[in-house]
Request: fold
Amino acid sequence: MTRTDTVERKFEKDFAFLLCDSDFNRLHAAFMLAATALAMNRSVIIFATGPGVLALCRQSATLWEKEDRQLAMQGVATLDTLRDALLSMDARLLVCETGLRRAGKTEADLIEEAEVIGMPTFLDLSAGYKLVTF
Reply:
């Protein structure tokens, strides 16, 4: 394949990141990739379900305080900093209605910008997006 072939090749430009886990490293990687995609003028949807819902809760900073403090000391963006960056760059933050219940949370626990939807709505909104699961 030549360089021209690579440039002319069609690819999915926009991303839907599915957060299924509350593992700090997976969430951080998801938020880093999402922020990078947004900085490259790509649309991003974050869809949190199950334990991944915790990343979009108001009190999430207390869950990963130790990890965030370590990143900050290393000069790396924290999870909260990345989430704020996603919001400032117009990422759409969605939470699965069923996943919210699975996590034992309510809509009141979420950050204001998060929108609770069902899976069928997520599939409609993300049609044509590259789906990446964390």
